[in-house]
Amino acid sequence: MSKLIECIPNFSEGQNEATINGLVKIAQSVAGVTLLDHSSDKSHNRSVFTLVGDEVGIQEAAFQLVKYASEQIDMTKQHGEHPRMGATDVVPFVPVKDATLAECVEISKKVAKRINDELNIPIFLYEESAANPSRVNLAKVRKGQFEGMPEKLLEEEWAPDFGARKIHPTAGVTAVGARMPLVAFNVNLDTSDISIANKIAKIVRGSGGGFKYCKGIGVMLEDRNIAQVSMNMVNFEGTPLYRAFETIRFEAKRYGVNIIGSEVIGLTPAKALIDCAEYYLQIEEFDYQKQILENHLLS
Amino acid sequence: MSKLIECIPNFSEGQNEATINGLVKIAQSVAGVTLLDHSSDKSHNRSVFTLVGDEVGIQEAAFQLVKYASEQIDMTKQHGEHPRMGATDVVPFVPVKDATLAECVEISKKVAKRINDELNIPIFLYEESAANPSRVNLAKVRKGQFEGMPEKLLEEEWAPDFGARKIHPTAGVTAVGARMPLVAFNVNLDTSDISIANKIAKIVRGSGGGFKYCKGIGVMLEDRNIAQVSMNMVNFEGTPLYRAFETIRFEAKRYGVNIIGSEVIGLTPAKALIDCAEYYLQIEEFDYQKQILENHLLS
């Protein structure tokens, strides 16, 4: 059984169909890699690709996509609503099956080095691959965006992890890193008071003193007239979904508010939910790898 | 993505290594099929094989195994602790991925017909494939065992589903059918009173008026001095694990008894546990096929 690694490169092009189609063709042409999904947003002027593949293929596909983007996208002329600093803005690698986060860190560094060696694009390593805590958060790394990067690279603490203190003239700077799969998990409350959702979001999220691997904000669902705690669970092993859920439940009680439902948006690894079943069913000594039938079927 | 079907044939041979090895070789030689596991019990004089494969391969493998067993195992000389009626005693087909129970019923009937056509072994269809309710339960179908079968087949209600009212002289009779994957799920109580576990088992199991797809008995865990409700969940979609679990919880309260843990024994389909996470996390409109990442990876 071979390792499976996901890569979700974000490109600063969401309008030019020829360029998007070119990226799709490359993603579909690398051996050992499957393009699971891609979506483009015109107002954001950005495309997000989701690829999965073996250790070798995923590195090749990531590099070839970054290369093509650097040839096609001219950041000096690019505008959109979404913050960005490079033609390929960010390249995260995510362990999916039989691969560890540490292995994805290694992969991210190899790809980062190759991008810089062959394309001369400076690279910041971020998230789990970050060289220091100030580079973990993408928003901090990207602050200043493409236009501010020439100056930022000259600041003492912002030397790129790979490459010189000088942007690629048209492709800018790219962030490469490794992270756990992200689960978008929203919990709905039986209140129309957004301030309650905001207070609870602050309690559960790491930045508010809550769970390290949980990000969260309060959101109003206008059509249902209810408030929601909208979360990104950025490491479901470090902060399991049920722990955030039960914390929201007991914090909401203070306001006489109850949970009326939840949503998982998009894809989730099976384990993020099976870990919750283990908790609620109080299963003793469950072995995910050995006891889940499907883990014996994936080749 | 191709359908995956599991087949778990039971052979009335658990002692003769040459025969067991012969079965293993056949199971490993059919294209499109993987032998996941096999185990033999000498005192039971029985071997259980677990194969998984595509629609075509699994039928071929099942037939070839039954053929070989009919050539090697002489039921007139076979003795063991486990009840049995044929060289191949029972051949269940189970939907694993992208296959339905209805499709497995069709497969079971095709294989049953071929076994009878080519090997002249009479077949009872059982479980979901059964022609009438009295043939659903294997124990009822097998009652009388190999020695009683010649007479049983002559009884008005026990004409085989395929073949004449006459056993194969050395291979006896075989039961073929389709069923959902079975999950062995045990719930531990904080009492050493086995009678409480027995009472609760009777309440949750279908035969006691409880959940249709749940079988259960009380069991004493001597080493821990606690009683357990030991269950087979024979259709986790019809009777989800959480429903049996929560019923055991509230029934135990009558006796001042609490659940202290549970066990899943052996393999479980991911969905059996993910359905429980959906319940406890109150997830709205979850789409198992689309939202579980791994479902996009299985080829």
TrEMBL record, chains A, B:
- Whether Cytoplasm counts among this entry's keywords is yes
Q: Name one GO cellular component term.
A: cytoplasm
Q: Which GO terms describe its biological process?
A: L-histidine catabolic process to glutamate and formamide; L-histidine catabolic process to glutamate and formate
Question: Which residue numbers delimit the Formiminotransferase N-terminal subdomain domain?
Answer: 3-180
Q: Which locations, inside or outside the cell, does it occupy?
A: Cytoplasm
Assigned keywords, A-Z: Cytoplasm, Folate-binding, Histidine metabolism, Transferase
Q: Keyword Cell cycle, does the record have it?
A: no
Predominant subcellular localization, coarse grouping? cytoplasm
What Gene3D superfamilies does the database record attribute to this sequence?
Formiminotransferase, C-terminal subdomain, Formiminotransferase, N-terminal subdomain
What EC identifiers does the entry list?
A: 2.1.2.5
Any idea where the Formiminotransferase C-terminal subdomain domain is? Answer: 181-296
Pathway info: Amino-acid degradation; L-histidine degradation into L-glutamate; L-glutamate from N-formimidoyl-L-glutamate (transferase route): step 1/1
Listed GO MF terms: folic acid binding; glutamate formimidoyltransferase activity
PANTHER family given in the database record: FORMIMINOTRANSFERASE-CYCLODEAMINASE
Name the chain's protein.
glutamate formimidoyltransferase
